[in-house]
């Protein structure tokens, strides 16, 4: 298992519904909790991560702030299309510290993952670190 969501592993943010040049979406994939992506307000907010190839995903760890409603979806298509929900939940608020959420999966494959932040505990939310434990799937050529 390794963090397949690191930019160094070939993962990319291919879509966000908002962006601030001081807090770009790529910050979610740099492996550091000190850097982050911040929304520009209003909901829903979403972002899509594309991997270098098909991955077996076993666990997602999300470090975020003020996120309330979250939907996680996956796509196995070559392009980031035809997403299906693999988890949805209401997160627990935290006052001054990061929310640390963990999602576990059995035999879930994905080439792309979409995260939809449906609501927040404030007008703005931030995602500091996205860790996705997985392994590459050997694909037939």
Automatic annotation (TrEMBL):
<protein>
    <recommendedName>
        <fullName>Intraflagellar transport protein 25 homolog</fullName>
    </recommendedName>
</protein>
<comment type="subunit">
    <text>Component of the IFT complex B, at least composed of IFT20, IFT22, IFT25, IFT27, IFT46, IFT52, TRAF3IP1/IFT54, IFT57, IFT74, IFT80, IFT81, and IFT88. Interacts with IFT27. Interacts with IFT88.</text>
</comment>
<keyword id="KW-0966">Cell projection</keyword>
<dbReference type="GO" id="GO:0005929">
    <property type="term" value="C:cilium"/>
</dbReference>
<dbReference type="GO" id="GO:0046872">
    <property type="term" value="F:metal ion binding"/>
</dbReference>
<comment type="similarity">
    <text>Belongs to the IFT25 family.</text>
</comment>
<keyword id="KW-0969">Cilium</keyword>
<dbReference type="GO" id="GO:0005813">
    <property type="term" value="C:centrosome"/>
</dbReference>
<dbReference type="InterPro" id="IPR008979">
    <property type="entry name" value="Galactose-bd-like_sf"/>
</dbReference>
<comment type="function">
    <text>Component of the IFT complex B required for sonic hedgehog/SHH signaling. May mediate transport of SHH components: required for the export of SMO and PTCH1 receptors out of the cilium and the accumulation of GLI2 at the ciliary tip in response to activation of the SHH pathway, suggesting it is involved in the dynamic transport of SHH signaling molecules within the cilium. Not required for ciliary assembly. Its role in intraflagellar transport is mainly seen in tissues rich in ciliated cells such as kidney and testis. Essential for male fertility, spermiogenesis and sperm flagella formation.</text>
</comment>
<dbReference type="InterPro" id="IPR033558">
    <property type="entry name" value="IFT25"/>
</dbReference>
<keyword id="KW-0106">Calcium</keyword>
<keyword id="KW-0479">Metal-binding</keyword>
<dbReference type="GO" id="GO:0030992">
    <property type="term" value="C:intraciliary transport particle B"/>
</dbReference>
<dbReference type="GO" id="GO:0042073">
    <property type="term" value="P:intraciliary transport"/>
</dbReference>
């Amino acid at each position: 298992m390794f963090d397949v969501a690191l930019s160094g592993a070939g993962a990319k943010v291919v879509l966000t519904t908002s962006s601030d040049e001081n807090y770009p979406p790529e910050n979610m994939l740099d492996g550091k909790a000190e850097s982050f992506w911040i929304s520009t307000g209003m909901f829903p907010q979403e972002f899509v991560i594309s991997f270098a190839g098909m991955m077996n995903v076993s666990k997602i760890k999300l470090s975020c702030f003020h996120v309330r409603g979250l939907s996680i979806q996956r796509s196995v298509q070559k392009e980031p299309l035809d997403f299906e929900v693999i988890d949805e939940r209401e997160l627990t608020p935290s006052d001054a510290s990061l929310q640390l959420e963990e999602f576990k999966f059995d035999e879930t494959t994905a080439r792309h993952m979409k995260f939809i932040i449906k609501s927040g505990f404030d007008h703005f939310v931030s995602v500091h670190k996205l860790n996705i434990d997985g392994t590459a799937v050997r694909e037939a050529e």
